[in-house]
Each structure stands twice: as C-alpha cells, then as structure tokens.
Specification:
Nucleotidyltransferase, domain 5; Gyrase A, domain 2; 4-stranded antiparallel beta sheet; 37% helix; 6-stranded mixed beta sheet; elongated; 9 helices; transmembrane; 28% strand; alpha+beta; 2 domains
Length: 336
C-alpha cells in the first residue's frame, strides 16, 4: 500500500510515499492504477471511537453525531459518518468536505481509501510523537492532532523530530469512499481535453452529414427526370417546389447551426469554473436547441457562470433547477 499525505486543506498537493522515500507532488499527477491510501487533514476528517449495541445504521450514525457534537466546542450540522476497517471506529465529516475530497480523488476509479492524518501518524508510535508542526497521539482510543503549543500546555511528553517515512505495515482505521455519481465519477479538470475532443468528433460527424447533403445536391443537379423523386426521398416532409432554393437553405441552416454550436461549446469550456461539473451537453436538431446540464457548488457559482456566458453574447434560459445536499443542478437551453 502506498500513501499520499495531503499537506493543505485545499487538497492540491502532498507527500507521496514510495518505498523509503517521499516527495511533494500535485495530486493531479498521481497514477490511478496505483493502490493508494489518501491521508486527509484531521480538520476535515475527524476520528471517533464509539461503542453501541444499535443495529440500525441510521440510528447508530445519529448517535455518533450527537456524541461528537456533545463533546465538541462547535456544533456541526450536515455531517456524514464513515465506517472504518476497525470495529467501533468511525470518521465524522461535513458533506462539503466529503464532496471536495471526492472531487479531488475521483479519478481513482470506483472507490478510494482515506484516513485522517491524526490516525495515520498516531498509530506509528505507542507514545505521542511530533511530526512537522503538530503532535499526534491516541487518548482514550481516539486519535488526536494537537498544535505544539497545546501539547506543551497540556504537559504532554512527546518524541521530537520523527522522520516522515512510509509505515512498515498497512494501517488500520481506513475508510472506503465510493464514487457512484456522474459528478464524482468524472474529474472534469483531468478529462476536459477529452471532452473537447469528443465534442469535436461529434461535430465532425455532423460536418460529414453536411458533405453528404452537398453530394446529394450534386446528384440532383445531374438528374432531370427523377429530380422530384430524389428530393422527396431525402426530405419527405418538404414540398417539391423551388427545389434548388430549398436545398441551398437547408445547407446554410446546417452550416449555421454547426458553427454556432462549436462557438457555444468553446465559450462554455472557457468559462466553466474548476469546481463545476458538466453532466451532459445535448443538441436537439428538431428544436434547434443546445441543452447544457451542470452541477454547481452553490447559487453564486451558478450566477457567475450565467453572467460570464452573457458577457460573451450567450444568454442561457434555465429549463430545470434542483438544489440538494449543498449543490445546485441546473439545466440550460440555448436557441440556435
């Protein structure tokens, strides 16, 4: 098992342990084929030791949350409880933090292992240890992370200057998180270029269709007796009057729609915030509309996106909006 220890609450970079060495790298440079455990700051992922005879998990999780809030200086809401691989040990985490973690490491695949830095370091030694600017220890079966000042005030004796190194054996107290939604499954910042490539391929197929229409037009110009029959077979809903003019109008319409679609998509990818996810983009030929479905972190992020698109000359109509779990799912329509 390899470990990646985040060094900040923004979850951008951290220590990557390989063998006996470690180095600080960006999380985006990790290989998703590796077996990794991510070490999360204790400020985001809080360890809890709780024994209970409750069998119903919903009641058990509620009891754990009440227990933690009762023993905390600040009352937390909108929390989730995660089970670890060690009995009677859990993590309590705010949903916003869990969502951020999933966003950062969702590229790993279906799931990933996480552990708090308090548990990661505290289990390395039977006594309190100092690593970098904090002291880690286990007190009453609970992993703690203290500042050096707090540990000194509490008169806690600790080992100093412990070298950062990979554990010799796998550590317990890990929790497994799953990436089961489209939002979590696709890490947009990593696949943005592939999305653009896919959209370009779709537009290329549309252009091939236009070329086929032009080819059909040339065939029509070379056919005298069967021109009406050929036209009605290609466009059965159109009246066979002023055939040449209607073909020209259709070609201009297809060219305009495809050029407009490409411009809109380029503007869309240029203005989408890093923490916003595009769930899907759909082009409805029959209605001459582009449908864009996005997931925003909050209403402000949505408003900024709409404003930026408007500045670029694209006014989006909201056809659907849903708020759930501190996220905003919005579907936009744009008439071509």
């Amino acid at each position: 098992m390899k470990y990646f220890v985040f060094t900040d609450k923004k979850l951008n970079e951290g220590y990557y342990f390989t063998g006996s060495s470690s180095k600080i790298i960006n999380v985006d440079s990790l290989n998703n084929s590796e077996s990794l455990c991510f070490v999360i700051p204790n400020e985001m992922l809080k360890h809890c030791h709780y024994k209970s005879a409750l069998k119903n998990k919903q009641n058990l999780y509620a009891a754990i949350q009440n227990f933690e809030n009762k023993n905390s200086l600040t009352q937390m809401i909108d929390e989730e409880v995660l089970e670890t691989n060690l009995k009677d040990n859990y993590y309590v985490i705010q949903r916003s933090h869990l969502s951020k973690i999933k966003t950062k490491i969702g590229f790993m695949g279906d799931s990933a292992l996480i552990i708090s830095d308090a548990c990661f370091y505290a289990t390395l030694s039977p006594e309190p240890i100092k690593i970098l600017d904090n002291v880690y220890l286990i007190d009453k079966n609970k992993c703690l992370k203290l500042s050096i000042k707090s540990a000194t005030v509490a008169k806690i004796k600790f080992k100093e200057d412990i070298k950062l190194e990979i554990p010799k054996s796998e550590i317990n107290l890990t929790a497994k998180i799953s990436f089961f939604s489209i939002k979590q499954l696709f890490h947009f910042s990593k696949i943005k270029k592939y999305v653009v490539m896919l959209v370009s391929i779709i537009l290329l197929f549309n252009l091939i269709g236009i070329i086929n229409l032009i080819n059909n037009q040339l065939k029509i110009n070379n056919i005298d007796n069967n021109i009406t029959e050929l036209f009605t077979s290609i466009l059965p809903l159109e009246s066979p009057i002023n055939i040449d003019q209607k073909i020209q109008n259709k070609l201009q319409e297809y060219n305009l729609n495809n050029n407009t679609s490409l411009d809109i998509l380029q503007t869309l990818f240029a203005n989408i915030p890093e923490e916003t996810f595009i769930n899907f983009v759909q082009y409805e030929y029959g209605r001459s509309k582009i449908i864009i479905n996005c997931t925003f972190s909050n209403d402000i992020q949505e408003s900024v996106f709409i404003r930026n698109m408007k500045i670029n000359g694209i006014e989006l109509d909201i056809s659907f909006k849903d708020k759930r779990n501190n996220i905003v799912i919005t579907e936009f329509e744009y008439d071509i």
